[in-house]
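Late entry, evening session. Most of the bench is empty. Finally got around to the prediction I had been postponing all week. Sequence below, unchanged from the version circulated by S.P.
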Amino acid sequence: MPPLARRDVRSLVRKLDARARPAQQKQALTTIARLSACGGDRESLVAITAAGAIPSLVQLLLGPGSSADVQNRAAGAMCNLAYLPENAVAIAAAGAIPPLVQLLRPASPSDVQKIAAGALNNLAVDADNQVTIAAAGAIPLLVQLLGPGAAALLQEYAAGAVARLALNDDNKVKIAAAGAIPVLVQLLAATSPALVQRNTAAALMLLARNADNQVTIAAAGAIPLLVQLLGPGATALMQEYAAGAVARLALNDDNKVMIAAAGAIPPLVQLLGPGSGETFQNSSQQLH
């Protein structure tokens, strides 16, 4: 980013001040969201962060004087900035997680829930944030957003957040206790969009690192659905997560029999063929 653009970013961040006019705040938020969209380029994200955007965005999110529109735009900008792992730490340190969790509540519009779920998904890349997000009460709210009434993109973000939260062992238990497993299994169905299936398979793979969850996942009917995702119509990453989930479920003796009965062995053998070594290498790394 050239020097002039950096000065422009600093000027934009000054307009995020709570004392600025609402029109200025909205204009600045729109521009920052554009610069950081889809993760932006690293230089833009670093410049926005260095200009002090994160504390200002959190103040807009927390501020009682902020309109719902300003709060939503601030949450969206934080969602984008959190693509940088170091920003995920800074955003959490500024106190953003509890208000983002509040935006997941049923009273929020679907678009707002989507933004909050996306932000929490990005923030959950950090291990400490996984604990903080769960402690703020996000898990049961995310599980609600996995239901059949939710939009596909909302389910995708919520399933992604649940998957990352499941990297924490205590969260694996909390996620299962919140009733997530049957809902996740339903999202493996062929009627779900591919990205929803992918994130769901990832979540089940990680949840299956818990012995009790291995039993619950199988009882919910996941095995034949996971076997379907091993087929040639699935993406490599989807096959990786499905194979990882099957591998973890197979640590249970009863599940071994059900996995074989579901016809898993032939597609697993096919995945051992040329060109699939990287998929199984990645999957095996996930299982350690």
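Two things to note before I forget:
DSSP finds 20 helices and no strands in the chain.
Residues 281-288 have pLDDT under 50 and may be disordered.
Will write this up properly tomorrow.
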